[in-house]
Design a protein that fits this description.
This protein has helices spanning about 5-25, 30-65, 70-120, 155-170, 180-190, 195-200, and strands spanning about 135, 140-145, 145-150. The protein has about 200 residues and is mainly alpha-helical. The chain has a 3-stranded antiparallel beta sheet with strand order 1-2-3, covered by helices on one side. The longest helix has about 50 residues, at about 70-120.
Length: about 200
């Protein structure tokens, strides 16, 4: 959009060019007027373009006037839909934060169970993984009554959920539905035990 300030600035550049040209002529310059002419041409063309712009805007306002009520309703509808998007975005962010907090709490529960099994003297030996139904293993993993548990990376869990949603909405070939993080693939294969079941369902 061309403003009145733009035109004023162009006129100012013409005045500046004339001052410079006058100074150059005092030193014998013969082509100083070219600089002035270029500035004048730009200013004239800018003023003409602004006139055309103003006329176009005037015509557009005249065309809009009979539909003022409809345009107001349209604007209000778009504002309302944008508000719904913002509300949904905040809800999604809060839900994702809640998911991460829940995974963090789950990891704390796994660590606590592991510490308790260790205190009870119930290790899960590497050579007896399938023999013991309950015990504490390496890297924080454990078994309780036959169920395997292990801490899960909260960000990997979030990636699983997001990829699932994106795949469901936009197809499995969507870039956001395909995750290259090796921890995600490991999680889906059951590296964290039963935690993968609700994630797969989600």
């Amino acid at each position: 959009m061309i403003t009145e300030q733009n035109v004023t600035q162009a006129d100012g550049r013409v005045s500046e060019a004339r001052r410079k040209a006058a100074a150059l002529r005092k030193h014998g310059a013969v082509d100083a007027e070219d600089m002035v002419q270029r500035a004048v041409t730009v200013a004239v063309e800018l003023r003409a373009a602004k006139a055309r712009q103003d006329e176009s805007m005037k015509a557009r306002k005249a065309a809009e006037k009979p539909h003022a009520a409809e345009l107001r309703e349209m604007g209000a509808s778009l504002e309302a839909s944008a508000d719904k998007v913002a509300t949904a975005a905040r809800g999604a962010a809060e839900a994702l934060s809640g998911l991460i907090a829940a995974v963090t709490a789950h990891n704390e529960a796994v660590h606590a169970a592991h510490a308790r099994l260790t205190a009870l003297g119930l290790p899960l030996g590497d050579d007896a993984v399938s023999a013991y139904e309950t015990g504490a293993g390496r890297n924080g993993e454990l078994r309780v009554l036959g169920e395997y548990w292990s801490p899960a990376a909260a960000d990997a869990v979030a990636q699983v959920v997001i990829a699932g949603v994106m795949g469901s909405c936009f197809g499995s070939k969507h870039p956001a539905a395909r995750v290259s993080d090796i921890r995600v693939h490991s999680l889906k294969r059951g590296s964290c035990g039963k935690l993968v079941d609700p994630l797969t369902a989600a």
